[in-house]
Design goal:
The structure is a single chain. By secondary structure, this protein is an all-alpha fold. It has a single domain, classed as Orthogonal Bundle (MetI-like fold). It is 71% helix and 0% strand. The chain contains 13 helices and no strands. The two termini are 30 Å apart. Mean pLDDT is 87; it is low at 263-267.
Length: 267
């Protein structure tokens, strides 16, 4: 009982801001800054959501963000799982050295690579399109390669050896044996990628040059600039942007936690 009470006390500071965000999105204007503070709106209204949807092309921003996010998730999971499999389940010369080099790239701060990366994408005529935010995910991500490699190494090698004796090739072993057992790690990778891409502001700000290609993060920022005093509508737009992330996490939380703890052996 004491542990549950302590956990609840730790959770409250994280829940209160979101509750305030949600309640403010339904408050009438006269209750937004009322004294004393109105924690529970006496009259729920949906006008702020209507205002947010009317003032910005929310559907277009949602479509752009969804496309970039889904592409990034699929590309990251596919590329990182293949690389992690080769670094953990297949013996080849220089494997450990290449893995160390891959980990070393994690020490490069993102701001250091912004300028040269932008120059490359500009030379490729990708600036102003979704390409800089999507296709690079096919090259893998060092952190997720590390995460998946460590998980793959917990899966007994006897399973792969038995499959080889039965005549299975590496792709068959990877697709039919390793990936099903690595589902928690794959879900964790997908969720991390989803969160990072869905909430990404700097990437779209740098590479997207037309309002028609803006994402939800850019749209919300422009909404703040143009409607900074409309706090109810601003909170409503923030709720609509945050809700998909919360729903997805609750759906996949069990597999997500298993993937983070790196327990790859099934009973």
């Amino acid at each position: 009982m004491g542990i549950h009470a302590a956990l609840i006390a730790c959770v409250i500071p994280f829940i209160v801001p979101f509750y305030w965000l949600l309640s403010t999105s339904f408050k009438p204007d006269d209750q937004l800054f009322a004294t004393p503070t109105v924690w529970i709106p006496t009259n729920l209204i949906g006008d702020h959501y209507t205002s947010a949807l009317d003032d910005i092309p929310f559907g277009q921003y949602l479509g752009n963000t969804t496309y970039i996010t889904i592409f990034s998730v699929v590309a990251t999971v596919a590329s990182c799982s293949v690389v992690a499999y080769s670094l953990s389940r297949i013996e080849w010369p220089g494997r450990n050295l290449l893995f160390l080099i891959t980990l070393a790239t994690l020490m490069l701060p993102y701001p250091v690579t912004i300028v040269p990366t932008f120059i490359i994408f500009k030379w490729m005529h990708w600036v102003g399109t979704f390409n800089p935010l999507t296709w690079p995910n096919l090259t893998g991500n060092p952190f997720f390669i590390f995460l998946l490699r460590q998980f793959f190494m917990t899966i007994p090698l006897e399973l792969s050896e038995s499959a080889r004796i039965d005549g299975a090739g590496e792709f068959h072993i990877f697709w039919r044996i390793v990936l099903p057992l690595a589902r928690p790690a794959l879900v964790a990778t997908a969720l991390f990628t989803f969160l990072g891409t869905w909430n990404d502001f700097l990437g779209p700000l740098i590479y997207l040059t037309d309002q028609s290609t803006d994402t939800l993060a850019l749209g919300l920022a422009s909404f703040v600039g143009g409607h900074g005093g409309e706090w109810g509508a601003l909170m409503a737009a923030a709720v609509m942007m945050t809700l998909p992330v919360i729903v997805l996490f609750f759906i996949a939380q069990r597999a997500f936690i298993e993937g983070i703890t790196l327990t790859g052996i099934k009973e």
